[in-house]
C-alpha cells in the first residue's frame, strides 16, 4: 500500500482517461448510453496510481449523489477506495476522513 495522503487533494478534471492516472485525485466523467455524466473514473487521492469508478444515482447501490457541478463536484456518501484511502469529494477537494 502506498503512503496514504491525509492532506486535502484538489480534484482535477480531465477529458482523456490516459491523463487521469497521472495525478492523484484526477477524474473524468463517463457515459452510459445517452446518460452523461453517469459517474466518474478517478485516480485514488492517496497517490498510489490506482483508478476507481463511482456511479451516480439513480444507479443501484453502491452509487453516489452528485451535486451537478462539473468542475468542482461534491459526492455523497464518502468514498472508500479500499486499502488506500477513505474520505469525501467536496467542492472539488478530496478530504480524508
What's the gist of this structure?
This protein has 97 residues and is mainly beta. It is built from one helix and nine strands, in the order E-H-E-E-E-E-E-E-E-E. The strands form three sheets. The protein has a four-stranded antiparallel beta sheet, with no helix packed on it. A three-stranded antiparallel beta sheet has the order 2-3-4, with no helix packed on it. Strands 5-6 form a two-stranded antiparallel sheet.
Measured as a percent range, the helix fraction is under 10%
Poorly predicted regions are: none
The profile of the biggest β sheet is:
4 strands, antiparallel
Mean pLDDT: 91
* Strand order, largest beta sheet: 1-9-8-7
**SSE order, as H and E?**
EHEEEEEEEE
Shape: globular
What class do helices, strands and sheet pairing give? mainly beta
Q: How many domains, as an integer?
A: 1
User: End-to-end distance, in Å?
Assistant: 18 Å
Could you tell me the number of beta strands? Answer: 9
What proportion strand? 35-45%
Provide the gyration radius in Å. Answer: 12 Å
Query: Helical segment tally?
Result: 1
Amino acid at each position: 500500500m502506498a503512503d496514504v495522503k491525509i492532506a486535502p487533494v484538489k480534484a482535477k478534471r480531465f477529458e482523456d482517461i490516459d491523463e487521469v492516472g497521472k495525478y492523484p485525485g484526477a477524474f473524468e466523467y463517463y457515459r452510459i448510453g445517452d446518460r452523461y455524466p453517469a459517474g466518474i473514473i478517478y485516480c485514488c487521492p492517496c497517490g498510489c496510481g490506482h483508478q476507481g469508478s463511482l456511479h451516480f444515482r439513480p444507479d443501484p447501490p453502491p452509487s453516489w449523489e452528485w451535486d451537478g457541478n462539473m468542475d468542482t463536484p461534491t459526492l455523497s456518501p464518502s468514498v472508500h477506495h479500499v486499502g488506500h484511502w477513505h474520505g469525501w469529494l467536496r467542492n472539488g477537494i478530496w478530504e480524508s476522513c
